[in-house]
Amino acid sequence: MTQTAKISSNGENISDTELPPSEEVERLTTKKQVVYRQPQYTITAPDGGWGWLVVLGSALTHVVIGGQERASGVLYLELRHKFNRSAAITAWVTSLSSAIRLLCGPLASFFSNRFSLRKVSFTGGILLGLGFLLSGFADSLEYFFFSYSFLGGFGKCLSYTSCMIVVGHYFDKRRGLAVGLATAGVGIGMFVFPPLMEYLFQTYAFFGTMVLMAGISLNLCVCSMLYRPLRENDRSSYSWEPPPSTAESENVELLASPNMEDSETAAGATMSDSSTNNKWPKTTFSSPSLTENVRKKAIRPTHISLTHSHNYEPISSKDRNCCVAIKKFFIGDKYSDKNRAILNFSLLKDLHFCMFLFSICVFTLAYQSVPVFIPALAIQKGVSEMNAAILVSISGVADFISRIFVSVVLDLKRIKPYRRYFYTLICMLNIIILMACPVAVTFIEFASISAMYGVFSGGYIAQKSVIIVDLLGVEKLSSSFGWTTCFQGIGTLIGPPVAGKLKDIFDTYDPAFYFTAGMVATGSLVLLTSNLIYFYQQRKMKS
What is the DSSP string of 332-346? Predict the structure, then answer.
């Protein structure tokens, strides 16, 4: 957007277009032609290099957070034994923690845009560790709700959202593989944490287990230090339009961003300090050769390369008004790319994205119930407690292998255009696995079902953020991922308590798994409908 402010000979300011209030230009008393350009920030994904260390940090974050949540079945049994409450109420503890991690996704995305992914993730690790530490002193289930579900859940939200977004920023061509490797950490966590927590509960009791889990959670702070911001090495081009030939050469100025720290000069361009009343530094072009070119409209410069910083604009005196500040906080500032809104409602205008959000909601409603209740179902059928915990580990190994394999396959050149169709097929295959759970009796049968569930659920979860980019593009990843986690949170909040209520009513866990299978079937049908609409739209465009 180019805006021009003209100054008449008597010093009166005449504007072609009104400048935004947050980007005022000092009134000039001399005859000058000002060319204003809004900076356009573009970040190029390196597709490697330090990005692989970012993937490592994200994978370790998934190991801790994913492992703790997949061990929720072990925690569920321990809480029932300790507080002796109903299945529905106890299931709320684990589901509420996961729900807050997901429901607060838009808020975490906003913090990531406003500050940095590294700072947000670091804060999340501290909050999660504090949540586990306080949970060790819990003398009631209500206290555990506050410490584990609310405080720990919000800490997981900050770290989880950051680790997913940062991988999407560092990779473009190999984004599917990178996301698959990063989320594969959940499989490792599923393999390690359930038997580990069962051992810790038997060895160190409830308090000791919570303290040790708090120490493990603080490792998220270490992982966050690997999220080096891309802005440190970023360079952007700032386009500008030359003034009319009637403009005097010594009065040609380019207004830069107030956050501009350095500039590379070209053709004699120099950066001059702004006055105390003007927040906008000015780049004045005084080269004789450049002046001559501008006068004669001959060879006109089109781009000036400037090194910039993505530091956010300080709050000006105009933002101190309470109502204005609250408005900008929730709906953003239309004049600034940095003051983004918490929720970008314009994304909901996309039909395919809305259908994807609904399917994600019902999928999560089902998938959050399985790791909570499959150990309890196995114990009900006569499997020992340790073997029941191992079932989640078996699912974790299959999940780990599936995430990497599916990511590599769906990233192939010939398959990538049809990635969304294969994604729907993977989701539909989960229906068969969930329907088979109540039929299993022996440990071998449960182990086979757990392995197959890990294969299909791992492929579904690993490609979730990749499908979002396919739908909306990487530039909307932060906002769209926030919406996705929000709808996941709704499903997580509803799923386990409803499944627990079905157990209380029928005194068996079988109806809970039939319910989850029905939810997956509903979500798959919505995704299939979206794919059919997309297919006919593409076919119509080609014809």
Answer: --TT-SSS--SS-GG
Distances (CA, A) of 296 to 7, 43, 194, 244, 482: 22, 35, 75, 10, 51
Location of structure tokens 């408005």: 327
Shared domain for 444 and 522, answered yes or no, is yes
* 506 neighbors 409 (Cβ within 8 angstroms): no
Can you tell me the distance from the alpha carbon of 107 to that of 100, in angstroms, rounded to the nearest whole number? 11
Most confident of the following: 155-169, 245-259, 265-279: 155-169
- Mean pLDDT computed over 214-231: 90
How high is the pLDDT of residue 248? 47
208 and 267 inside one domain: no
- Alpha carbon separation from 192 to 69, 70, 183, 463 (Å, rounded): 12, 10, 15, 23
The enclosing domain of 451 has a CATH number of 1.20.1250.20
In a domain, 508, yes or no: yes
Question: 190 and 257: one domain?
Answer: no
In angstroms, the CA 150 to CA 130 distance is 11
| Residue 375 domain flag | yes
- Please give the residue that has the higher pLDDT: either 144 or 41: 144
User: In terms of domains, do 285 and 251 share one?
Assistant: yes
The closest alpha carbon to 252, from 18, 31, 25, 480, belongs to: 31
Read off φ and ψ for residue 20, nearest 5 degrees. Answer: -65, 145
pTM: 0.61
Find where tokens 């255009």 sit: 417
Q: Does some domain include residue 38?
A: no
Domain residues for the domain of 262 are 2-31+235-307
Q: What tokens were used for 87?
A: 């299945």
Say whether both 202 and 258 belong to one domain: no
- Reply yes or no on whether the pLDDT at 4 is more than 70: no
Query: Rounded CA gap, 13 and 45, in Å?
Result: 43
Are the CB atoms for 61 and 159 separated by under 8 Å?
yes
C-alpha closest to that of 128 among 94, 154, 108, 105: 154
Comparing 15-24, 40-49, 296-305, the range with the smallest average pLDDT is 296-305
- Adjacent-strand bridge partners of 37: 2
472 Cβ neighbours under 8 A, 6+ residues apart:
347, 350, 353, 480
Verify that 81 and 206 share a domain, yes or no: yes
pLDDT: is 1 or 384 the higher one? 384
* Of 468, 432, 424, the residue nearest 452 (C-alpha): 432
At 255, is the secondary structure helix, strand, or coil? strand
The average pLDDT across 23-37 equals 43
